[in-house]
Amino acid sequence: MVLAFSKFAEAEQSGKFALPTHNQASADVFGKTLPPVGYVKFCGRGQDECRFANGSKEKLNLTTEKWTMIAQVNTYVQTKIRPVSDMELYGTADFWTYPTNAGDCEDFVLLKKRYLVGMGFSPDVLLITVVLDEAGEGHAVLTVVTDKGDYILDNRRNEILRWDNTGYTFLKRQSQYSATAWESLQPARQPMLVSTKSN
């Protein structure tokens, strides 16, 4: 579940990235950026996930019922899917897909999003997101954009936390307007390529 990141220009290591501001309900967006390479390849296979467009900046009205649905999907996928690297499963470092019984971090994200969309949630409030974890390793999570803040579904923990309480550094995520458009969650810097390296 580790995402390796590199830049087209001279690499800068983690520690120079802006961390979430505590008690900031939602992440700031700093303009367009490149999608992860694995996601581009995934979309190239014609996946339905990649087709939403003409979305809006609306936020999910987070009722008790909707929170319960989100928590149920999160728990179900956490228990159904076993974390395994793409290299072990597919013999390649970066293969995004819907898992059946095992998968990498982005596979967990894809499956959770698919189930929630199937339950009536709008895809433009369910955003695939790339972060750096506490060790500076790349990782994928699902952001749920709500009127109570951005909440994170993460295969590394069962608890659903608001983004500013995860301990992660947020790099980029899908745009609410289109599945294939991505936005930077960091102040302007050189574009990043992101690929899955290991479990």
Protein traits:
199 residues; alpha+beta; C8orf32 fold; 7-stranded antiparallel beta sheet; two-stranded antiparallel ribbon; 22% helix; globular
Characterise this structure.
- The structure is a single chain.
- This protein is α+β, with helices and mostly antiparallel strands.
- It has a single domain (2-198), classed as Roll (C8orf32 fold).
- Helices cover 22% and strands 26% of the residues.
- It is built from 4 helices and 11 strands; from the N terminus they run ββααβαβαβββββββ.
- The protein has helices at residues 37-44, 64-80, 86-90, 105-118, and strands spanning 2-7, 32-33, 82-83, 102-103, 126-132, 138-146, 149-153, 161-162, 169-174, 182-184, 192-198.
- The strands form 3 sheets. Strands 2-10-9-5-6-7-8 form a 7-stranded antiparallel beta sheet, with helices on one face. Strands 1-11 form a two-stranded antiparallel sheet.
- Helix 3 links the parallel strand 3 and strand 4 (102-103).
- Helix 2 (64-80) crosses helix 4.
- The chain starts with a strand and ends with a strand.
- Residues 1-15 have low confidence and may be disordered.
Largest sheet: 7 strands, antiparallel
Helices, by number, come to 4
- Tell me the Rg in angstroms: 15 Å
Strand proportion, as a percent range, falls in 25-35%
Spell the H/E element sequence: EEHHEHEHEEEEEEE
Outline the fold blueprint:
Elements: E1 2-7, E2 32-33, H1 37-44, H2 64-80, E3 82-83, H3 86-90, E4 102-103, H4 105-118, E5 126-132, E6 138-146, E7 149-153, E8 161-162, E9 169-174, E10 182-184, E11 192-198
Parallel strand pairs: 3-4
Antiparallel strand pairs: 1-11, 2-10, 5-6, 5-9, 6-7, 7-8, 9-10
Helix pairs in contact: 2-4
